[in-house]
Write a structure and sequence with these properties.
By secondary structure, this protein is mainly beta. The chain contains 4 helices and 12 strands. Strands 1-2-10-9-6-11 form a 6-stranded antiparallel β-barrel. Strands 3-4-5 form a 3-stranded antiparallel sheet, with no helix packed on it. The protein has a two-stranded antiparallel ribbon with strand order 7-8.
Length: 281
């Protein structure tokens, strides 16, 4: 798909080649997995439920590709949203999010984004809304030490202490760590390893935890750290990572063709890149 010339002139020409679009997914929960050495590690299951590329727009010299997740009835949309999906000729989506991409990575509206968009072994960044904890004190919210449990402290063991200064400046500075609402904020987990791709269920399993509750919506995209050194696509893709392994040739701009079947696991780094430290008996 190509952009109109009038729209292409508004795109920043210094955008990095190979900046792929991301994906939206539902967080299904966590499970335990084992590597080839028998060590257990936690993994999070992310389901790309009817993830699809939608329209494009330019905002502040950045080309944005909108991606939709899930299915929603047209009766639940207002008129501007209904007209938007009718012009694209696609079914209404439950959640929308725009990703900054390079013009060469543009996808036509209606292109499905499957789990095959990612590969086992690559690193991704996962963003979501953290679980809300409600109103919390300073000790729980910021990890303050608090006051001693005895020796003259009455009813102030979990107090945060002083919050301001003296007559000058005579106020509390903005951003002071105090009690307040905890959680329910945008959070990003960087550089998570993709350990399994389940093509049959259209799921991506990443190592570790991701923000948000079970059933929440998260966004997945290529790791920003991989873009800086040893990119997995575009210029510099031949370079090696810090651990000695080469980046993976990711499908660009996305996986096309019939979806594969089965599960594909990450087998771990090559044996020659693993350092074994002998322990003294």
């Amino acid at each position: 798909m190509s952009l109109p010339p009038a729209l292409l002139t508004r795109v920043n020409p210094k955008l990095r080649i190979g900046h792929r679009v991301g994906a939206l997914a539902f967080k299904l929960g966590m499970m335990s997995m084992y590597d080839r050495w028998g060590r257990m590690f936690p993994a999070t299951v992310l389901h790309l439920d009817n993830c699809m590329a939608l329209g494009t727009r330019v905002n502040h010299s950045s080309l944005l590709q909108e991606v939709g997740l899930g299915v929603k009835s047209l009766k639940q949309l207002d008129k501007p949203q209904r007209v938007y999906f009718e012009k694209l000729g696609v079914e209404a989506r439950r959640k929308l999010k725009a990703f900054s991409i390079h013009p060469t990575a543009l996808l036509p509206p209606g292109t499905p984004i499957r789990a095959a968009h990612f590969l086992p072994g690559q690193h991704v960044d996962v963003q979501g809304v953290s679980i809300g904890k409600g109103f919390a004190g300073a000790m729980k919210r910021w990890g303050f030490k608090g006051f001693p449990a005895s020796h003259g402290h009455s009813l102030s063991h979990r107090s945060m202490g002083a919050t301001g200064c003296r007559t000058d400046p005579g106020r509390v500075f903005k951003g002071k760590k105090m009690h307040g609402h905890m959680g329910a904020k945008n959070a990003t987990e960087l550089h998570l390893r993709v350990v399994r791709i389940d093509h049959d269920r259209n799921c991506v399993l990443v190592r570790g935890a991701v923000p948000g509750p079970t059933g929440g919506i998260v966004s997945i995209r290529d790791s920003v750290r991989e873009r800086g050194r040893g990119r997995e696509w575009g210029p510099g893709a031949h370079k090696q990572r810090l651990d000695g392994t080469k980046p993976l040739p990711l499908p660009y701009p996305t996986y096309r063709g019939d979806p594969p079947s089965g599960q594909v696991d990450w087998e771990g780094p090559p044996a020659d890149t693993v350092t074994i430290v002998a322990q003294d008996q």
